[in-house]
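Feature request, filed as a ticket because there's no other form

It would be nice if the structure record came with a short human-readable summary line next to the tokens. Right now we just get the raw output. Example of a typical job, pasted below so the devs can see what we mean:
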Amino acid sequence: MTSAVVTNEGLTGALDRLVDRVHGAEFAVVLSPDGLPLGGSRQVGAELIEQISGVVAGLIGLGLAATRVCEGGALRQVVVQMSRAFLFIATIPNGTILTVRIAGDDVEVGDMAYEVALFVGQAERHLPIRLGPASSVTIGETGAQHRHR
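Raw output as currently delivered:
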């Protein structure tokens, strides 16, 4: 299990801005490394977050298996292309997982890919801690306090 030390307002605002920047983006969710929801954009309800968590856990598992078999290095992103939508799943250096859904006939998938990469690259602003096992981090600690013990 993971113990998150994240301010939900800051993360929700960052995810809302991500969704607002790209035409056709419907929602964004950040999950802990073990699949627990840390935050979502304003368009995401509890039921959808629960469903997305399960889907993402399975896809990340498949992606990690592919990295081992193909010896291609660390998993960075999984993209699911459907007939009317795309699901972008990106790993963030601190262990969290960003998931964004974009849909529509006239969406710019390249724009979404760029924004996902930008978010991941700046994730420390929105998720300023390194997530670890619940036994090594207690709620209320900041990442800096945890690292300098």
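Something like this underneath would help us a lot:
Residues 47 and 53 are 10 Å apart (CA to CA).
Residues 1-6, 131-149 have pLDDT under 50 and may be disordered.
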